[in-house]
Amino acid sequence: MTVYCSPLTNDTLFDGRLVCRQYRLGYRFSVDAVLAAHFCRVQDGDHILDLGCGCGVIGLILAYRHQGRGVQVAGLEFQPDLAMLSHDNVLANNMESSVSIIEGDLRRIEQFVAPESMDMVVCNPPYRKPGAGRLSPGNQRARARHEVDSCLEEVVDAAAFAVRNRGRVVFVYPADRSVFLLHCLKLRNLEPKRIQPVYSYPGIDEACLVLVEAVKNGGEEARITAPFYIYTEKNGPYTDQMKELYT
Fold it and tell me: What is the largest CA-CA distance in the chain?
């Protein structure tokens, strides 16, 4: 029986059919991860890498949504307590045949993943500089949200190393830093092909997030899709679009 360093909560998705335990006071997944998982366009037999998988929720969602299609997901996580938790979440959902967890540092990606061995890489990376804003309380949450262990350039380097030629890379990132993300991707021959702005609610002027799909050595043409709204209004409930991602 695994002994955890702090209490857990038992959270569910898809009307309780998927269980995802999380640390009550540590890093907890947000809508970012749910959006990223659903933005992935998965093909039969895909081998997918989730960089910095946290509690494993993106891999769990992908494996659940694409059952019976021969999809294999590997999650790479640097923090030992989160790697252990994500592994136990895989076991709790009986997904050992389709999801595996690797404890390791993405800055040493070559030690854990063969070059160009993945059809897709998905990532919800840390997105704040250590000196930008208030650090999240608790070391685990701070390391997941701020560039403490790795910076964006290193994350994109790892994605470019792991994904095959013409393979896809999916990132979710704050909209106000999207130019930096696109710059990092293009420097590594990961050409942005599909971009979706995400807004908190209709009527607001600025997007809060962007979802980006890039293709390794793809062409330069990019498509910007219709905006996605998380809430119906300020402090309101989820939109029907958002509800569908959970149910």
Answer: 51
List pLDDT tens digits, range 199-225: 999 999 999 999 999 999 999 899 999
Q: 133 CB contacts (<8 Å, ≥6 apart)?
A: none
* CATH code of the domain covering residue 214: 3.40.50.150
In a domain, 2, yes or no: no
- Can you give the pTM of this predicted structure? 0.89
Is 92 domain-assigned?
A: yes
Range of the domain at 157: 8-246
Q: Does residue 127 fall inside a structural domain?
A: yes
Among positive and negative, which fits the CA dihedral 43, 198, 156, 217?
positive
1-33 confidence digits (pLDDT tens): 566 667 899 999 999 999 999 998 888 899 999
Domain count across the chain: 1
